[in-house]
Amino acid sequence: MVKPPLIPIARPEHDEGEAEAVRHVLATDWWTQGPEVERFEKEFAAFVCAPYACAVSSGTTALHLALLVAGVMPGDEVITVSHSFIATANAIRYCQAIPVFVDITPATFNIDPNLIEKVITSRTRAIVCVHQMGMPCDLAALITIAQRHGLVLIEDAACAAGSEILQKGQWEKIGRPHGDLACFSFHPRKVLSTGDGGMITTANSGWDDRLRRLRHHGMNVPAHFRHRAAKVICEGYGELGYNYRLTDIQAAIGRVQLGKLPDMVLRRRDLAVRYRHLLAGQRLITLPFEPEWARSNWQSFAVRLAPEVDQLTLMQILLDNGIATRRGIMNAHRERAYSCGTWSCGKACINCLENTCVRLKQSEDAQDQTILLPLFPSLASEEQDQVVRALNEILVSPPLLWK
Length: 403
Ligand SMILES: Cc1ncc(COP(=O)(O)O)c(C=O)c1O
What we know:
Elements (H helix, E strand, L loop, with lengths): L15 H11 L8 H14 L3 E5 L2 H11 L7 E5 L5 H8 L3 E5 L1 E2 L4 E2 L12 E7 L8 H11 L2 E5 L7 E4 L2 E4 L7 E5 L12 E5 L2 H10 L8 H6 L19 H32 L5 E2 L7 E2 L5 E5 L5 H10 L5 E2 L33 H9 E4 L7 H15 L8
Parallel strand pairs: 2-3, 2-6, 6-7, 7-10
Antiparallel strand pairs: 1-11, 4-5, 8-9, 8-13, 10-11, 12-14, 14-16, 15-16
Helix pairs in contact: 1-8, 2-8, 3-4, 8-11
Bound molecules: pyridoxal-5'-phosphate (PLP).
């Protein structure tokens, strides 16, 4: 029997525009950290209305450099969520700092601002909030807390290109930035993709200068400046830096994708509305919540399952029917890489800080009770209908699923 083609969880979109842009770069002699990167940075900054945008090799390296320029030092504490892709917490550990996890607000899957002040200590340096799956965090509350305690606010906007937030009556793009720095990812699971890639936006020109040096081994003269100079220039390396460069090939793809981003986000929003409409009567599913001050780009469409539905069984049957899903967002504290071996309750529920045993109940429930449905611009109505039909059919045949 021929299996029907899989409906994937995501499908990176491209056409002749991206292909032509890549061919154009290949025909020049600038393949990395050159003029296309510069153009991409300017256009991205203009799109989100940020004073500065610095391109890097990934969302993870964007977070690492943002934390470094924010002054995060070994032993500092950084408040964030466990409920995120592990890169968020990993970047904090790359600085030899301690991620201090707080729980999420279940409706939005984002950091619960009410829990932050309880864990601030004299060692706290920064807050990393995550606009999870493209849904903006409660930035107004986070900015107030950060300012009150003199903390740097870093937005993990990996998933949030094109998402918007209402600020003083105006819709503004995530990345302006509203905190001190915002970090984007251009991985193919994201709304705008360059294969791999990342961007850091900030209003701080000093930080922007340092980001540019750090991404290129700390070199104090930009490569293109040296190569174009009529006189011999000898560069210097004032501090330890990294190879976190974006290539011009990636940047060229990014520029074309950026041009398409508004339409891609509109299409995603239409599909999200359509899921809401089609799944409205399904009592075993709770649809995602969007606060009135937020406009998601719907990087992912997460639905919460009723307690009696077995998440993994449902996902497997959907997969057997040619439909890929993902379980709810992971929790770093449940992974071995984050275990300190001092759990007092015997469960994978640690917050390594000072051996305190903290249960991140909302984060764990979100991972265990949520599934992400396929949503991407080229998802055809028939494919979306197929997802909904399969879900409804499986959910009326209880025996397999009831826990
Ligand atoms: C919330 C979040 N932060 C950071 C990252 C890391 O981005 P990258 O894969 O580009 O390094 C991701 C990627 O999945 C993410 O979802």
